[in-house]
Specification:
The chain has about 230 residues and is of the alpha+beta class. It folds into 2 domains: about 80 residues, Aminopeptidase (3-Layer(aba) Sandwich); about 100 residues, Aminopeptidase (3-Layer(aba) Sandwich). Helices cover about 25% and strands about 40% of the residues. Strands 1-2-3-4-11-5-10-9-8-7-6 form an 11-stranded mixed β-sheet. Strand 9, helix 4 and strand 10 form a beta-alpha-beta unit. The two termini are about 20 Å apart.
Length: about 230
């Protein structure tokens, strides 16, 4: 993760952030203070970020834009951005809805030897593998679920001051619909609550009604819808 900051008379008025959640294409998002908009700050930050990504060897970025922001959409299309996909941003405040836990499924931190299985699950669930990831990163640990010695699900937990984020959540397709995902997400949310974390957030494709129903049934609430624009470098 890397941020570009825009200061005006000692006040932070804008930023652009570069994020890589395992995808081969980095995501870029940002914000400009309302009183400083329409002065070209957002455009300049985006140009600087694309130059940075190009120097890193990236061939493109995904610009994350709130669907409610006309200006963000116009900025994306002005740089040749094409809508790639859209996601709902959801958050859980407080405790997760109660429910049973399957004792035959163990959730544990991943180790380097789990890489092949994690990539297999992600590819099966999302249609593509993640780029190189550090499974044992303290700030963003990858978890795997096992049953009878076989890895059947995986997810990553991103720790920030604002809360925990859940990403790369994949259950082996033949085992979906059996309550495994619900059980694992409930465990993560309970762990967050026990650790004093008040907010857990995640994202789900706008086309994935099944997952959306799962998350909302556990207490997650819709916060925003975000459009991802692919910009070639």
């Amino acid at each position: 993760m890397r941020d570009l900051l825009w200061w005006d008379d000692g006040q932070l008025v804008g930023f652009a952030g570069l994020y890589a959640f395992g995808s081969t294409t980095p995501e870029v998002t940002g914000m400009v203070h309302p009183l400083h908009r329409r002065h070209g700050i957002g455009a300049r930050l985006l140009d600087e970020m694309t130059e940075l990504c190009g120097a890193r060897g990236d061939t493109g970025i995904l610009l994350v834009t709130p669907r409610s922001s006309v200006g963000a959409r116009q900025l994306a299309t002005s740089r040749g951005g094409v809508l790639d996909h859209s996601e709902h941003a959801l958050a859980l405040q407080g405790t997760v809805a109660d429910g049973p836990s399957d004792a035959s499924v163990a959730l544990r931190p991943a180790v380097s030897g789990d890489t092949e299985e994690v990539q297999r699950l992600v590819t099966a669930a999302f249609g593509h593998s993640f780029g190189p990831i550090d499974l044992e990163s303290p700030a963003e640990p990858t978890m795997v679920a096992e049953r009878d010695g076989a890895i059947i699900a995986t997810l990553r937990v991103h720790h920030t001051q604002e809360g925990w984020g859940v990403y790369g959540f994949a259950v082996d397709p033949p085992l979906q619909g059996q309550g495994i995902g619900r059980d694992l997400l409930r465990r993560v949310c309970r762990d967050a609550h026990d650790a004093g974390v008040e907010r857990v957030h995640l994202e789900v494709s706008v086309e994935n009604d099944r997952a959306l129903g799962l998350y909302t049934s556990l207490g997650f609430a819709h916060e925003a819808t975000e459009d991802y624009y692919a910009i070639a470098l």
